Amino acid sequence: MVDEDQEVEPLLNPTGREPKQGRSRASFERMLAAATDLLIERGNDDFALTDVAKRGKVSIGSIYCRFDSKDDLIQAVQRRVMERMADEEAEMIGRLTDKSTSLDVLVRNFVEELAEFLKRNAPVLRPMMLRASSDPVVRAMGRKGYDSLVEKVMSTLLSRRDEIGHELPELACEMTLRIAYSAFARYLGFGTVGDTGTKADWKNLKTEVGVMCSTYLRNGNR
After folding, report:
1. Would 72 be classed as within a structural domain?
2. Nearest to 219 by CA among 154, 172, 160
């Protein structure tokens, strides 16, 4: 029996048959943009390649020249989204490193940055997370993206290791990210069709999660 991770690993970076330049490249980009817009507008993947063709002003034939199926196209969209988000994550970590003068400041800045990062990307993350339940490639790419975020955040939080009061700093930092991510993901409706709170709730949620996480890291014990 083939392990699921082994089965999907070769497909984690699908690109379609990507052209390098000229009008073919422009057409390819319109396909990706159209599919992304449809995912965001509908909140799921309930659209056909004919919808992509109409939105992107490309022919069905040109889509099939680049992608074997709608699945392939959506996987290529996710790869593009993940690349953009990785760039955003790197910028976020840079800001945290530059402006954080203590553990408390670092953690509260991190919580604020993570919240707004997820909120900006929520419109496309929601349909991708819904699709992950049935698409092992999308699921594996999402897992890989999350693991990359964990690695970056862990390194940043542990740069203040001497200020962490928890007897297991690595575990405490991992739990801090998991708790913050889960709280914001739930509010933003990841795995569902929309937001679950109000603007006032969002502001309070960010503040309270920041307080809880910084207090936990400074004073947590077992």
Report:
1. no
2. 172
CATH number at 130 reads 1.10.357.10
In a domain, 167, yes or no: yes
pTM: 0.84
Task: Let me know: does 103 contact 218? Beta carbons within 8 Å.
Answer: yes
Which range of residues forms the domain containing residue 18?
4-66
- From first to last of its 222 residues, what are the pLDDT tens digits of the chain? 334 343 334 344 455 566 666 677 889 999 999 999 999 999 999 999 999 999 999 999 999 998 999 999 999 999 999 999 999 999 999 999 888 899 999 999 999 999 999 999 999 999 999 999 899 999 999 999 999 999 999 999 999 999 999 999 999 999 999 999 999 999 999 866 555 566 669 999 999 999 999 999 998 666
DSSP string, 22-39: HHHHHHHHHHHHHHHHHH
Q: Are residues 57 and 126 in the same domain?
A: no
